[in-house]
Amino acid sequence: RTLALFSSWRAVEAADAHLRKVLSERPIRIITQKRGDAVSPLVEKFASDETSVLLGTMTLWQGVDVPGESCSLVIIDRIPFPRPDDPLHAARAQRIDRAGGSGFRSVAVPRAALLLAQGAGRLLRTQQDRGMVAVLDSRLASANYAGFLLQSMPDFWKTTDPDVATAAIARLGTQLGL
Predict the structure, then answer these.
(1) Which of 27, 116, 37, 2 is CA-nearest to residue 15?
(2) What is the pLDDT of residues 99-153, one digit of tens each?
(3) Exposed site from 49, 119, 149, 158, fewest CB < 10 Å?
(4) Do the beta carbons of residue 156 and residue 131 sit within 8 Å?
(5) Inter-residue contact 110 to 99 (CB < 8 Å)
(6) What is the C-alpha to C-alpha distance for residues 43 and 31, in angstroms, rounded to an integer?
(7) Segments in 3-145 forming alpha helices (H)
């Protein structure tokens, strides 16, 4: 019931290796996106198996529509800022910096806000959907641009306390009969 969205292939591969080790004796199916994989078959497998976890990168941040109990936890590893070596974003940011503005605030932060909202939006596809979005990047709570990013997301209840989050996901599991 978990969709885990990562900002890099390296993170997807590391999560896959870790989860296969720690969940080896649990009846949980790990579906991992590989470079070049078509998204639709991965999403179909995930949606049809409520014991599954889908791990993937940027192509899963949009267009994944899994309503109902098959997706009750969305994990986002990092705020999805554009890559610094992306020539288009870098050129736009440099132009703004040279004009006396902040390229980071004008280019990177709005782009990250859009992607963060799209990633979080994978959880709620119908009015009956419920669950948790866990953003594992502490900058969402502490950076001076965090408020802007949070405003772009659905109006979720928020916590930075891991114990509170763990208890909430446990209650959700109980409600779902897990």
Answers:
(1) 2
(2) 999 888 888 899 999 888 888 877 666 666 677 888 999 999 999 999 999 998 8
(3) 158
(4) no
(5) no
(6) 9
(7) 9-22, 39-48, 87-98, 103, 109-120, 139-142
